[in-house]
Write a structure and sequence with these properties.
Layout (H helix, E strand, L loop, with lengths): L2 H51 L4 H18 L6 H13 L17 H36 L4 H14 L3 H15 L13 H43 L3 H8 L4 H39 L4 H11 L14 H29 L2 H12 L1
Length: about 375
């Protein structure tokens, strides 16, 4: 078997195993919370039934209570072993069978997967667009800074990148909202709602989407491009000192080819890996920024599920806590992070020929 296929297979198995283990851990927390909530709800329901029946004999009330609690536990599968419920809950997670939401509905249905899919595309659209732009800007400017290392241009670029990467995304978002929305009026007031396509047409919907997307996208690029720039500049600076780069320059190869051919080709694996890791690190801050800009993404949905759960109550006073929805969102975010690390690992293996070479040397040694 070629080394690349073996490398790919091992990494894929590790990714799938990691996802299932994390699903088991998340299910253990979810099942524990769900069990406590259901037992509380069952006890409240049975007490209400006993008050309505008004038993004369306390022993009859006690027997009815024990029998009724056991029936409701069997109805809610609380009589089964906890490890069994955890396992089946983990299987539901990895198969994206999240159940139904208590409050949220999409298209007349309450399936959690449909609710998440109504919000997730907005997160993917904004985050991937911004990540692609600021990563490209950071790589290109970082290579230029490395080319003129220790010059005034390099010092200015380094200062700008350090300042940019030190500003929290959510804080910059609030400042830009105050300036561009509330003071200058250039940006509409934050709102998670978009007009219906049937009312404004596709062009009108796209126009409204781009307008609301402009300030979050600008903020994301301005705050995050510094880290990409700094990483690319440091990696390229070290490579430009290598002997084969000096030899290429001494042969009269054009500087543009040296930078974007020889240097970028060698720097691609570490730059790609560091860029993906930086994207995953900044993903959490971006979800908070969705709340600041009222952008209807997965972070905004998670905030609604968490905060609105503490303000709504059922008939008997039990809070409507969206365990299923919150667990599903957390699982989706974990899966995105694991897949991101997996992609970084695979790309590094594809871009770095030493993996195949290392395998060949191992075979020759045997």
């Amino acid at each position: 078997m070629p080394a690349s296929w073996k490398y790919f297979g091992i990494r894929t198995l590790n990714m799938l195993l990691t996802i299932f283990v994390l699903a088991m851990l998340l299910s253990a927390v979810y099942v524990t919370i769900e069990e406590e909530d259901k037992e509380e709800s069952i006890n409240s329901r049975v007490l209400a039934e006993i008050e309505q029946k008004d038993f004369d004999d306390p022993n009859d009330a006690y027997e009815y209570r024990e029998k009724r609690i056991q029936e409701l536990k069997e109805e809610h599968n609380l009589d089964e072993p906890r490890i069994k419920r955890i396992f089946y809950s983990a299987v539901d997670l990895v198969t994206f069978d999240f159940g139904k939401s208590e409050r949220y509905a999409v298209g007349g249905g309450r399936e959690i997967s449909a609710v998440i899919m109504a919000y997730l595309p907005y997160t993917i659209l904004l985050f991937t667009s911004g990540a692609a732009i600021y990563s490209l800007i950071g790589i290109l400017i970082g290579l230029k800074a490395a080319q003129f290392s220790r010059s005034k241009l390099d010092k200015i670029i380094t200062l700008v990148s350090a300042t940019s990467s030190s500003v929290p995304l959510w804080w910059a978002g609030m400042i830009f909202l105050v300036i561009f929305s509330y003071m200058l009026g250039w940006y509409p007031r934050p709102s998670p709602f978009f007009p219906y396509v049937k009312d404004v047409g596709y062009l009108g919907y796209i126009k409204e989407l781009l307008i609301k997307m402009s300030l979050p996208l600008f903020t994301l690029i301005l705050v995050k491009f510094g880290a990409s720039l700094w990483t690319s500049r440091n990696i390229a600076s070290r490579i430009l000192q290598d002997d084969y780069i000096m030899a290429a320059r001494s042969k009269g190869i054009p500087e543009r080819r040296v930078i974007y051919g020889h240097t970028l080709k060698t720097a691609a694996p570490p730059i790609m890996t560091n860029t993906i890791l930086a994207l995953l690190t900044s993903f959490g801050g971006f979800l908070i920024a969705e709340v600041v800009f009222q952008w209807p993404g997965i972070g905004y949905l998670l905030r609604r599920a968490l905060f609105e759960s503490s303000t709504s109550y059922l008939t008997h006073g039990t809070s409507v806590f969206e365990q299923g929805l919150i667990s599903a969102i957390v699982f989706i975010l974990v899966v995105i992070s694991i897949i991101g690390l997996y992609i970084a690992d695979i790309l590094y293996g594809l871009l770095d020929p030493r993996i195949e070479v290392g395998s060949q040397f191992s075979k020759e040694g045997k």
